[in-house]
Every structure is written in C-alpha cells, then in structure tokens.
Amino acid sequence: MAVLKQQIVLASSSIYRRDLLRKLEIKFSRYSPDIDETPLLDELPEAMVLRLAEKKAQAVAEKYSNALVIASDQAAVVDGQILGKPGNYEKALEQLLLVSGKSVVFHTSLCLFNSATGHIQSVVEPFTVHFRSLTTDQIGNYLRRDKPYNCAGAFKSEGFGVVLFEKMEGDDPNALIGLPLIRLRQMLEREGIYLV
C-alpha cells in the first residue's frame, strides 16, 4: 500500500466510483459536493463532463486544505443525444430500444486536484460500446435481472449487461463504469504517489 502524505478524497457519492477506487488499495474518504450540473447552452458532452469534474474537485478542495481530490463525471451519447440515468423500468426500456444496434460513446472525465498546491490534472476518457440488435423481450429480460435504473445508458457492464454488447472499445474499461483508473494512476504518480 502506498504511503500517503496527503489525504485522498473522492468527490462523489457513487458506490460504483467508490468500489473502483478501492481497487487501487489506497486509503480515501468521500465527500459529495453540491454543484449545479445543468449543461451550458450548446456545450459539447466532452466539455460538460470535464467542466463538472473540475467544479466538483474544486468544491471539495475548499473543505480540505491538504488533499488530493478525485472527481469524475460521465455522459453517454448516442446520435448526439445524452442519455441520463433512466430511474425506472419504462425509461430504461426506452433507452435500450434507442441504442439497440447502435454505438454509444461514454465520455468519462477525471480530475485530480491538489488542494495544497492548486495543481489540477484533468482528462476525458472516451469508451465506446457497440450494442447488438435487441428485441423488446430481450431488453425486458435483462432489465428485470440487472435493474440498472441508476446507470447512464440503462445497463451495468460489470454485471449481466455484457450480454447486450457486440463489442467494446477503449483504453480503460473502468472508465465505462465511471472512473478511469489507468489515467488516475498516472496522475497520482505525477503527484509522487506510486502504487507499486
């Protein structure tokens, strides 16, 4: 386990991001910032997720004077439309019917903010999921099994959702779940934290 000179704070209430960060075996705490996540007029998804991750990190950094704050945001985009968290069965069915036979690009931002120095590192990591053509019955069977109602795009790739795909493309499968760990490791090393 890495020896830490600064506290590490995950700026998120997401259980998925929490579980991903635990993979790195570093001690961290969590604090969920209260920021306005409304997209700006004509804002591209990549720009939106980057702006929101940086805002989250900076908001949490105000509470911690000597911390490395990790923040992230994600947008799933198909045909120029951003897919949010469906919230219920009906909206999840609608989303999966929309993406059936199509490719969805997930733009996942990552920001590491050093509150002691003001140094900020940020990036957007794309990941593409190519969905197979799905029937309403297949989608319904999947939804009843995985219940992915709090997941953008209405699926859990780390769960049974993998049966919905033809293929996936990207540098870090963790980005699809919500936190690009490969990029995070690189950012932590630039702050002098080596995990192995």
Rg from Cα: 17 Å
Reading off the top of the CATH hierarchy, the class is best stated as Alpha Beta
What are the low-pLDDT stretches, counting only 5+ consecutive residues below 50?
none
Largest sheet: 7 strands, mixed
The number of E-state strands comes to 7
Rounded mean pLDDT is: 94
Name the descriptors.
single chain; 196 residues; alpha/beta; Maf protein; 7-stranded mixed sheet; 32% helix
Q: Can you walk me through this structure?
A:
- The protein has six helices and seven strands; from the N terminus they run βαβαββαββαβαα.
- Strands 1, 2, 3, 4, 5, 6 and 7 form a seven-stranded mixed beta sheet that branches.
- The protein has helices at residues 15-22, 45-61, 89-99, 136-146, 173-177, 181-190, and strands at 7-10, 29-30, 67-78, 81-83, 103-114, 120-131, 165-170.
- It starts with 6 loop residues before the first strand and ends in a 6-residue tail after the last helix.
What's the gist of this structure?
This protein has helices at residues 15-22, 45-61, 89-99, 136-146, 173-177, 181-190, and strands at 7-10, 29-30, 67-78, 81-83, 103-114, 120-131, 165-170.
How are the SSEs placed, and which strands pair?
Blueprint: E1 7-10, H1 15-22, E2 29-30, H2 45-61, E3 67-78, E4 81-83, H3 89-99, E5 103-114, E6 120-131, H4 136-146, E7 165-170, H5 173-177, H6 181-190
Parallel strand pairs: 1-2, 1-3
Antiparallel strand pairs: 3-4, 3-5, 5-6, 6-7
Helix pairs in contact: 3-4
